[in-house]
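Example S7 (structure tokens).
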């Protein structure tokens, strides 16, 4: 069966419970970059700490957010139903259930309705999900069991076909994964990683979502999920969720595929003899490496062909921001070519970096419904792309807030790339940008800046190949991961090969 690749974010928050930004804002921002999303409301915490002397502020903060969601639940469901236009965009209802003992889980319904139901423990929540034909997805699993990370002894695949392994919290894939946990909830624990779960014999897929708390689903670099589905409909997406045809990406829409004798990721395959894998990766920037892992170890690496065939097709990165922290800068920009064509534009827009938001606003009347797009494409044609944006400097030297575009071009190296931004004009031959990016400060040293490039040949963004392997165990777990030179990554759900 043929499947298309769709992109979404199933886990993010706004002021409907506790967070920032309205539901209308979040849905508008999601539609600008994604095919589907779910805006999640914080709802329940049955084993919340009760010692008010130590945790009083946390208790009040969460209870206020839970009460607020309950008051606004019909409004949230109605907004998602109104935003859903099958074939164009889908918004699923969901709510979050916290637990120190079992780890946090989100409950998702396929249709527009989802009863807001609490449960005293994980088995009871699983019964709630089953009764409603819903899914129940664990997230930020890498925290230690008992400290809101996953406890694999309680995991069941029937309503939890995949887990969230990457978000603003960090990466819970395995011991060597980049992006450590830096939230005050603690460090990554090996026993709670996805690799530990696979080694225990569990079969589950992996995804990324932002867990963003400022109304920006799909915030770039904070986590997105890819899904291979027959169509952009509620039913087709849920079928793909249950089949585990899903994977995790940090932000760039890296198209990564792995097949075992035609079987998709997420499948269990009888393969008692020699196994033939095919794979293909198409990045949004230059690929650093593509790795195939078997039972947790790398067994095959692939790299783009050095000096690959010259096709006249390139990917060009534009990045803007920097400047003084907290000083807003409004950007109006336009990129054009003296010769050639713009064939595709991928937005790499992110929202305000908020993991632990301020206390919930108590009055429902203070939840605004206006739509605000801080970053927006204004024009896209074969000759030019125009955008507007607002940046406010980087939070720290390790917390960037730059915005970007990845632009696909068909041109010859002698074509010139012109960027007009905030009254300034910069022009570079494409062949110059192939050597590396060029920086321009709009108002002198320490002012806001834009980086034009690098440009990379399309061949440097693509890898495809085959790999043959023999059985090692009764069940071998194969998965693929890809990394670009710019740090963007994709991690695929495994294929389970049985003797």
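Recovered sequence:
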């Amino acid at each position: 069966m043929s499947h298309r690749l769709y992109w979404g974010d199933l886990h993010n928050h706004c002021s409907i419970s506790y967070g920032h930004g309205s539901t209308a804002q979040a849905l508008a921002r999601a539609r600008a970059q994604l095919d589907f999303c779910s805006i999640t409301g914080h709802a329940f915490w049955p084993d919340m700490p009760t010692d008010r002397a130590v945790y009083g502020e946390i208790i009040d903060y969460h209870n206020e957010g839970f009460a607020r969601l309950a008051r606004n639940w019909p409004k949230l469901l109605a907004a998602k139903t109104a935003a859903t236009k099958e074939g164009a965009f889908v918004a699923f209802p969901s709510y979050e259930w916290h637990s120190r003992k079992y780890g946090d889980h989100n409950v998702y319904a396929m249709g527009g309705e989802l009863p807001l139901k609490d449960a005293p423990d994980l088995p009871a929540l699983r019964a709630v999900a089953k009764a409603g034909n819903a899914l129940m997805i664990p997230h930020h699993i890498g925290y230690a069991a008992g400290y809101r990370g996953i406890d694999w002894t309680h995991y069941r695949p029937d309503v939890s076909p995949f887990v969230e392994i990457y978000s603003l919290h960090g990466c819970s894939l395995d011991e060597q994964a980049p992006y450590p946990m830096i939230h005050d909830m603690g460090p990554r624990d090996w026993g709670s990683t996805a690799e530990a779960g696979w080694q225990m014999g569990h079969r589950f897929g992996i995804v990324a979502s932002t867990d963003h708390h400022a109304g920006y689903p799909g915030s770039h670099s904070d986590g997105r999920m890819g899904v291979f589905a027959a169509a952009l409909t509620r039913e087709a997406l849920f079928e793909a969720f249950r089949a585990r045809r899903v994977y995790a990406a940090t932000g760039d829409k890296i198209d990564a595929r792995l097949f075992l004798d035609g079987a998709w990721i997420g499948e269990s395959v009888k393969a008692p003899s020699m196994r033939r894998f095919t794979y293909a990766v198409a990045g949004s920037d230059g690929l650093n490496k593509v790795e195939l892992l078997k039972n947790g170890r790398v067994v095959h690496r692939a790299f783009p062909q050095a000096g690959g065939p010259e096709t006249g097709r390139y990917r060009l990165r534009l990045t803007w921001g920097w400047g003084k922290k907290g000083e807003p800068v409004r950007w109006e920009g336009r990129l054009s070519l003296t010769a050639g064509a713009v064939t595709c534009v991928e937005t790499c827009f992110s929202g305000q970096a908020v993991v632990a938001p301020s206390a919930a606003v108590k009055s429902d009347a203070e939840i605004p419904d206006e739509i605000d797009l801080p970053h927006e494409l204004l024009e896209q044609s074969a000759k030019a792309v125009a955008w507007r944006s607002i940046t406010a400097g980087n939070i720290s030297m390790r917390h960037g807030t730059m915005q970007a575009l990845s632009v696909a071009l068909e041109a010859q190296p002698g074509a010139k790339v012109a960027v007009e931004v905030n009254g300034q004009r910069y022009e570079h031959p494409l062949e110059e940008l192939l050597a590396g990016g060029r920086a321009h400060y709009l108002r002198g040293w320490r002012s806001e800046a834009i980086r034009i490039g690098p440009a990379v040949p399309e061949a440097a963004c693509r890898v495809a190949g085959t790999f043959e392997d023999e059985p090692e165990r009764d069940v071998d777990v194969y998965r693929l991961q890809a990394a670009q030179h710019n740090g963007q990554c994709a991690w695929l759900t495994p294929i389970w090969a049985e003797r």
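Notes on this example. The CA atoms of residues 437 and 454 lie 4 Å apart.
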